[in-house]
Amino acid sequence: MPMLFDPFEHLQQFQRALDAFRASGWLGSGPSAGGAYPPLNIFRKGDDIVIIIEVPGVRKSDFDIKVERNTLRIAGSKTVEYGDKAAAHRRERLAGRFDRAITLPIEIDADKIKAECRDGILALYLPRAERDKPKSITVQ
Amino acid sequence: MAQSQALEVQEKKELVSKEEKTVPVRYFVPTTDIFETEDALTVVMEVPGVDREAVDISVENDVLRVEAKIDPSKYDGMEPLYTEYNVGHFARSFTLSNKIDQQQISAQLQDGVLTLTLKKVKEAIPRRIAIG
Questions:
Q1: Helix, strand and coil percent figures for chain B, each rounded to 5
Q2: Cβ under 8 Å to B: A residues 56-115
Q3: For residue range B80-115, what is the model confidence (pLDDT) as tens digits?
Q4: Quick check: A53 and A38 in contact, CB under 8 A?
Q5: Domains held by chain A: number
Q6: What span, in angstroms and rounded, lies between the C-alpha atoms of B95 and A93?
Q7: Is residue A50 situated within a structural domain?
Q8: Are B83 and A43 in contact (CB under 8 A)?
Q9: Which ipTM value was assigned to this complex?
């Protein structure tokens, strides 16, 4: 019997997977421990690392991203402005500067890093450094 | 203009609705600012990761309902290693007062921020009275 693709099931499983990795120790107990803004999700796609960050309202030009060996530094500012003639009924959005550094437990190829920012999502594609990739050993 | 609070992580609030859903997919409440100018009420919602076509805005029985869906297929082939936030659709509803002209609601989406402009009915726009 063919399996029907259920889009809700797909999202639900994905949400469960995300929850399962909340307590992940992958990033280690270094100074890059969570809690700082912006919150990020780190994924593995094949051999490479993909970091997805939600930054609604931050424009491409407001970012300052630097990489040094295996430490990634994401800085920038988020502006929320409504002009003088506006009377606020509800304020939930926060604004300000952010500066977060994360040290990855694997080596990345700094020259091949790609960053894309679209619809308030910053995606960083970090290819793993060649010399860091595990090599298969054939048994003679 | 009030001082903005310092930037800090806002844990995503999950939507708790009166009606139960048939599928246990989690919906989240988007962070919203509402402010009023002379001729309109503006509702600004943070919905990162949402495409223009995936936003559904409707008004029924004086209730404005906004539903913004994310595309989970963008995460295909990606295995989570370390996560700090969850991902899901956004939904939020507001009851509109009779000051709002329900026929004149416009929306814009940019950088994951959805701005809804709800124009007020002509009678609700304050008139200046000149001293003769």
A1: 5, 50, 45
A2: 56-59, 78, 80, 82-98
A3: 999 999 999 999 999 998 889 988 899 999 999 999
A4: yes
A5: 1
A6: 20
A7: yes
A8: no
A9: 0.82
